[in-house]
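ERR on first pass: missing label on line 2. Operator R.T. fixed the label and resubmitted. Corrected input:
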Amino acid sequence: MPEPYILSNITVCLLLATAFGVVSAVRKSDLWLEASRELWRRRPIALLVFGLYLLIGLLDSIAWVGGSVTGEDAVAVYKPKSIVDRLFVNLEEKSYSAPLADREFYDRSPLRHQGSHLLGTDILGRDVLYLTLKGARVALLIGILTSLIAIPLAVLLGVAAGYFGKRTDDIIFFLLSTLASMPGLLLLIALIIVLGRGTLSVCIALGVTSWVGFCRITRGETMKLRELDYVYAARVLGVSETRIIARHVLPGLVHLIVITFVLTFSGLVLTEAVLSWLGVGVDGSWGQMIAQAKDEISREPVIWWNITSAGVALFVLLLVLNFVGDAIRDILDPRTLRENL
Amino acid sequence: MLAYIVRRVAYGMLVVLGVLFFLFLLFFAVADPDDIARKALGEKVDAEIIEQWKINHNYHKPLWPSIDRPKDNLLVDHFARMLSFDFGRSDADDSVISERIKKGVGPSLALTVPMFLLGLFFGVLLALFVAFFRETYIDRMGVFLAVLGMSVSILLYIIGVQYLVGKLLHWFPISGFDPSPQVIWRFLALPVLVGLIKGIGGDVRFYRTVFVEEIYRDYVRTARAKGCSEGRIMIRHVLRNAMIPILTQVVVAIPFLFTGALLLESFFGIPGLGSMTFDAIDGNDFSVLRTMVYIGSLLFIAGQIVTDITYTLVDPRVRLE
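pass 2 clean. output:
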């Protein structure tokens, strides 16, 4: 088994390759190209900001060992560091300091790096800007990893239920009703506690609870699609079931997948923040920074920079996702066309 | 009609059994009873004490039924106890769970019911207002503000409202609870306010979409043609018809009023079921956690059956299949 950071590097490269594949596929199809141009025309700022988040997340995702910096201790040399880590190496203080301060917040002793902490430092003396930047990767990781679990599951079962109907549909629909009737947040927490706390189990739990709604949508849409004339025509021509699904049903679901992906993304990040508050979240997330700050806000004088940085970073990401998600839905979903006339 | 009701209730019961089986898999098969015992007692405990604890908490039987012992196992036990509402004792502190639930329902409802009613009222009111001014700057501004509000995490709302109203303005106590009717509202004001602010963005946006969809229907054009005023159209025609999709969304939320609000209760110190669940999460109290999931799904399933049946009574367009 290779080191975890190498696995993560490989995953990031695979994701990048997939992204390039998607982009080139979009460029070949007139309709998708038109849709993406329309999106860019409507939401340029939101897209740029989201791109910035992606860039920060990427810069923090590729890590390697080595490139020692003077003054590091022996252990730290062997720790894999990303580009973001390397920018902030050796920037630690003893405890809290306000943004751009040159002294510690409480005991007023001079800082090692005076005036260089743009957003101050936290209780352990870590640079808050650094922690905030690192949170971008965690948030994107939660959204993407969960979607990679939930969407294939939802599409697979939704298409199976909608296309084959009868017994298959009964079983899958029963599974959906069972999962949907359990209170979401509690189920999520129960799953995480039972699976063991950690990033992967949080994503699995989020996946298990979030695929249900999407599966309903794909099931309903597939039921509509299979009654269409071109599917009948394909069946009369003797096309196999798998080919009908792959060539005639799945393409009709792609726009739904895109819409749901973007719209659930923000919900996932919000839910993770709540989980962090309850002590079962992902390490290094903005939710965790906010959860830690709930005690800092009642101190006198108030430590405000920690919660503000994490809160603003989280807020802007969610805002951008909501705006882009709404625009994508308006562009891709013909049902809302009338509303925009 | 009767056949439909019977079928609907039977399916609901089947789903209850499905939920129970899922809970069994999660809390007994995936989570090893030995682990549960160790989490309750501490890591370094004698095997004997663990065995004794498992006997006291009914974890000692074999997991699955076997041919020679078809009744004496955890699966049958779990189903029998849950279906007869015998929830047993807490894994963490040995308190009787059903008594704690009885005690917690009151404070939870005191918080969630006002929150729910006020949220529905203000949500519908604001959405009507925004939909009335559709495709103007007021509408755009309203939707923009709604999206803005949806993008803020509830954690920030809790901390922000507590800091502003409780600490800077000293209007209300920061946390705590007192059930006597004269002062209870002072303790509930902040959590209800946070709950309102948190939900209002999404609600307004959803209700507005429903209203605007109705506004473009033919019957609205007819009403306008016969000389109805815009205000009358909104109240008499649009609101009434839009209530069907809105109520289906809203009624589904009613069962969860009973299970309380996890974050708000734990943060504002209200001793309801939400706080109880929060403590259970904190202390790895599996028996309380699975009881709460079970009760939540039970209420949800019951609520759904009631909604479906009233739906067929209220809306003649719904066909029974």
